[in-house]
Amino acid sequence: MNNGAGRRINGAAEEDDDEDDVNGDLDAWERTYTDERSWESLQEDESGMLRPIDNQALYHSQYRRRLRSLSSTAARIQKGLIRYLYIVIDLSRAASEMDFRPSRIAVIAKHVETFIREFFYQNPLSQVGIVTIKDGVAHCLTDIGGSPESHINALMKKLECSGDSSLQNALDLVDGYLNQIPSYGHREVLILYSALSTCDPGDIMDTIQKCRKSKIRCSVIGLAAEMFICKHLCQETGGTYSVALDESHFKELILEHAPPPPAIAEFAVANLIKMGFPQRAAEGSISICSCHKEAKVGAGYTCPRCKARACELPTECCVCGLTLVSSPHLARSYHHLFPIAPFDEVTSSHLNNPNCKLQRNCFGCQQSLLDPVFGLRKQTRACRCVPEVQTNATC
Amino acid sequence: MKFLIEDVTVYFPYDHIYPEQYCYMIELKRTLDAKGHCLLEMPTGTGKTIALLSLITSYCLSKPQSPMKLIYCTRTVHEMEKTLAELKILHNYQIKHLGPQARILAIGLSSRKNLCVNPTVVAAENRDSVDAGCRKLTASWVRALASENPDVAMCEFFENYEKAASAAVLPPGVYTLQELRAFGKEKGWCPYFLARHMVQFANVVVYSYQYLLDPKVAGIISKEMQKESVVVFDEAHNIDNVCIEALSVSVRRKTLEGATWNLSRISQEIDRFKATDASILRAEYNRLVEGLALRGNLPITDNWLSNPALPDDILKEAVPGNIRRAEHFLHVLRRLVQYLSGRLDTENVEKESPVGFVASLSSHAGIDQKTLKFCYDRLHSLMLTLEITDTDEFLHIQTICDFATLVGTYGRGFSIIIEPFDERMPHIPDPVLQLSCHDASLAIKPVFDRFQSVLITSGTLSPIDLYPRLLNFHPVVSRSFTMSLTRDCICPMVLTRGSDQLPVSTKFDMRSDPGVVRNYGKLLLEMVSVVPDGIVCFFVSYSYMDGIINTWNDSGILKLVFIETQDVVETTLALDNYRRACDSGRGAVFFSVARGKVAEGIDFDRHYGRLVIMIGVPFQYTLSKILLARLEYLRDTFQIKEGDFLTFDALRQAAQCVGRVIRSKADYGMMIFADKRYSRHDKRSKLPSWILSHLQDANLNLSTDMALHIAREFLKKMAQPYDKTGSSDKKTLLSQEELEKLGDGSMHEMSY
Questions:
Q1: What is A80-257's CATH number, 3.40.50.1980, 3.40.50.880, 3.40.50.2300, 3.40.50.410?
Q2: Is the ipTM of this complex over 0.95?
Q3: Dmax (CA) of chain B
Q4: A96, A197, A220, A231: best mutation site toward chain B, by most B Cβ within 10 Å?
Q5: pTM of the model
Q6: What pLDDT is stored for residue A207 in this prediction?
């Protein structure tokens, strides 16, 4: 209750401030409140009582979830590393609603940007395209491609919302595009759906079956409430359906789609793919790049097969169609298949044991793991960081 | 799983059990031990039926020395099938664990319409014509005729059944109506008569309320049930109305015209018989003189609906002399019809007690009470004598005799009301004479008296202390259970104000206020924008619904909606399209009426109903003469205040409406009670406890915008994945070990 009282007093203090316009010299006790904003760490429970937000439980559940996902990957699940993902953004009237601040669409755009960057960071061999739904019609905003910047730029220019939403039109459009991609690619759709209904020209069930047949994995993140048709779509096509509670939850949900999902069993045939590892062109050499059709100085890559010039990696050579990657890209994708084993938890009592051979300092930051100043925080972080195989402790 | 409740080993076909099911079983077991009646309320979606069935069958199995029969009454054929399907799962499980000694015979019994397999008969459109069609082929005299003349059509299924005679038995097992028909087809036996025959031997019989409550039907179907039976009335929140309807008759002008026509047809028949074979009529006369029982030794196919009065009230004596001869009886009926049509010509609303009515009848038409009493049996006998098979043509005269017998038998608990026109449409003359029963306990009394245990159960029986008073019995157990939930998946709200803070209500003086109508429209419109998939909206009456929709239409605030109408076919079509709209993600609103067919029998579970809005308090039409008479009777006889009864009745309807939305624990839904009167304690406290326990104080007095906010939050919260078994402190699914660990003590906290 301390905090509640503090809040009230603080509120009064702020009013005084407004009147007197003396923001600079707050008393020390006032400053602790304004700095720490302690009321934000409170939440109301069912009976209207104030309680501190249970961060401990939150961290713990996250930790458990990570452990679980790791143990599931330990079973060596085949994953689709070369993903062709269409992000479908609903720009219907509902997307302009203000229940997320400042508006749903602003929040979506912000996090789609983060997502695209994260996606390419984790899946350098994959490609993304963006489709928008507006006035009941689906448009392809950007073609499928490997450059995060072009997608983000294109998206930021087009954020007006109007009209109804149509799931079927979007699925039909995406289905048409994804059918053209090579068979080793994994087809995915991520739909960010604001509306609560869909206005379709035909029977959407047929479209869902069509997607299922062409093995497109459809996932939906809803922003308002659970819709039956979305749930049905995800169940049929093997995707996930989730509904965002608030902005941070939305971010969490969308980022969950960044690591590659398990491959659909019948689809997971082993394929050999031809790839080229281009050399970086020498500084100062001038050549016409094949992607922009412009003469460029330096900074580019030369295709090992046809010697054409590409600006960015990874990409597909415009001339001979060879997939061009660099070895770090492959390595980054590779770690999804062989993730680091889960760390062992080391209790502080264990560390205090003089017989213990483990280091008492963090391998990473050299802080003592037993440091009382860092207390709990250190301990919990250390819990999640000490790997079984490493003799060096990390934090 | 199996577990012990006191001394009974209960076989339960699932691996997990809800705690409330366990409590429910304990209470049931106590009732059975005490051989008394009970009243149990448990919300829908908690597995009432299976808990009930598994306890009772297990109880029977554990006490083989005292065989018990289970009579399970449902409201609809659909529910009957569902119950039998559950019983089948249970039965298979018990056989797996106990071997062949657990074998039972369970059958569902329904009308010919649902059981007939003869393609020519079952093609008829309604129940009465199927019955008549069957009689045409199977009546004893038709069959006698057919044995001489091969051109006369007969039902081969019935003939095969007759030929098999005592060999025609069902092997033990659980038979749904479908399976019964399939069995009948395969063997070539008539499933209807087979079922009728097997009812006496079956361990479990599932049929509709009428078979026990309506004396006309009960007299032939249920009279041989042994005393050691357990009778279950499922979904029994409207049982008092069923009882009352069973004993009420209404006569319209059409009925009288039909009756007159029937009478002339009968008199023609009599003339024909006189000319050809007068001995039959004479034989009948002699039989009546001797006062022989009319029923009893008749073949099963000639059985007709028996006397509408309750068995105890039928006089065991000979038919009075003045109606023994067929012509005399016809004269009496003619005078009666004439008298009734004279009464129907009245300009004013009249209300009379049966005693007064009989007195005026005897002074004007010269028919005394005793004659009236025998009308029904006499007509029955006459029609058998005249070998009339197309009974569906004679419904009108049957109604008249029905009426006569009831009027002659009962002096109390009834009244006769003549209305020259419908109250709501005073310009269209539509005279109706109603004999309405006020006392629900009359029809159900024989059931309570005859059977060892009667269980009345439903999702909404609140307030639970009113039912024993209405039905006039003493339950040994009456209890209300709540639902144990892993999450708060129902969200009831009471909305008292519109966005403009003006109160909303369907109170008579407020309902036509444009502001109120607009606020209701706004509420619906705003809710549509935040709730996905299906929304159901209940109104208090058809006329109010029509009015309000018209107003909304004029002010242009309507979207894709489906509306229940009084036409069954149209409603079914609307429902079908509504479901399609919900499935395809379009979303839709269904407008319906409390007390309508939809409110009683159709489920709006899962995405078919995420929100139900109850607009107004569904009070009965309080100016109705019948209702007034009944209220008066209730006050005088049972000391139930008019207001109490009206509120009780309205709230149980409201609870029934909103209860449509949630059918299982995995489901979720919101309920909005949109009327300022719901916030009053006397109204609210009559809601079932499972709704009340989720109705937070904060949600009691909301305006539209606040409700909107709550709805948004609720829907987001419910869309999150959750753990079905519940976390450790809030266990909602118990496995066998957990159940064994559980002492009795902790279980009792669950119920209240």
A1: 3.40.50.410
A2: no
A3: 86
A4: A197
A5: 0.80
A6: 92
